[in-house]
Amino acid sequence: AKPFLGAMEGHSDGVVSLAKSPTQLSVVLSGAADGEIRLWDMTSRRSVRVLHGHAGAVRGLSVTKDGRRCISCGDDAMVRVWKLPRASLGEMFSSGGSLIPRQDAMFVFDTKAGGALRDVDCHWGKDIFATAGDAVELWSEGRTEPATKFSWGADTVLSIRFNPVEPDVFASCGSDRSIALYDVRTRTPIRKLVMQNKCTKLAWNPMEAFNFTVANEDTNLYSFDMRKLTIATCVHKDFVSAVLDVDYSPTGREFVAGSYDRTLRIFDYNGGHSRDVYHLKRMQRVFCTRFSMDGTYVLSGSDDMNVRVWKAEAGSQLGMLLPREKRKKQYRDALKNRFKHMPEIKRMTRHQHVPKAIHKAQKLRRVMEGAERTKKANRIAHGDGNTSVKEYRPARKGRIVAEIE
User: Fold this and answer.
1) How does pLDDT run across 366-380, given as a tens digit for each residue?
2) CA-to-CA distance for 258 and 158, rounded, in angstroms?
3) Rounded to an integer, what distance in angstroms lies between the CA atom of residue 349 and that of residue 347?
4) How far apart are the first and last CA of the chain?
5) Does the pLDDT at position 249 exceed 90?
6) Is residue 107 within 8 Å of residue 140, measured between CB atoms?
7) C-alpha to C-alpha distance for 78 and 31, rounded to whole angstroms
8) Exposed site from 219, 263, 293, 368, fewest CB < 10 Å?
9) CA triple 15-288-75, angle to 5 deg
10) CB 142 within 8 A of CB 107
């Protein structure tokens, strides 16, 4: 299987943020560490606009619900609103020699919280958006001042996301290792969860109103039900370094995550291990990932200044299929599903080729986890009757420190 389809080149610094349009499949935006934002046409893989204005890294990008405007924020503590133009046929299919038009922001807002802004996200039903920085600020698109400010003990809020099913609820990750839930209607925080390690990004399941997944610095991802935060619904493992971004497929059945270990992995929403792993020799740290709005493609932005396009299904055949080709594919998938329990089929399905450095790190991690299990068993064997209760905590509870109402 060859999942890699192509790279969209043009940035002169690392790509640190990505956004997709909810109304147009081919529109993608990327923000770089030098403050440049590029508007891409995915069908031709060309940059059609350069949005120029930020003085620092563009940490957050989000497109409004109608797909007409884009909101960005970054290290310069400024929020900018841009009008998204539609690419003409001449721009999409040009030979590439013409100069890419530059565009300035429609509105520029200055945050009152002070300090750099880390993320921004738009409401799914109203003309409001939220920014994450020293505090969570709720903005209305027609005003230059934030309407509401939320603060709950975090030094810096790293990520913020509105719930697509219940749009008046949103969640944030903080630098104090917390995950906080807020309600727009009551303008108050709802609940807070503290973990052992810091969470970097958060993504809601678009088909299940209560479920979300967080990317953590301890190399794992954790899925939670917001009604019961004392235990994770699933722990997703396989990375060997901090996970930096996560995004769900529109189907809600799978999600993609990118890591500091230079790989991209696709997980089933309830799978403990990754279904696919993508990597290239020249790809560096993956800072941001996105699923396309039709669930067919995966986008990744990395430190080597490229936005890459991948297949969501590594072995899938793109383009129009004849009826007999569709029947053949369905027959092959049915065979694999029927005999998936057999050792030979299971071994082929689970096999993932990874770079040598990651293979060695995985091997070392298995040795360390085995040693920890042995220590626990020894402490229980030589301890009192309550030792087993203290030592054995489920993996889904092990990283949770406290829940605060």
Assistant:
1) 999 999 999 988 988
2) 16
3) 6
4) 48
5) yes
6) no
7) 14
8) 368
9) 60
10) no
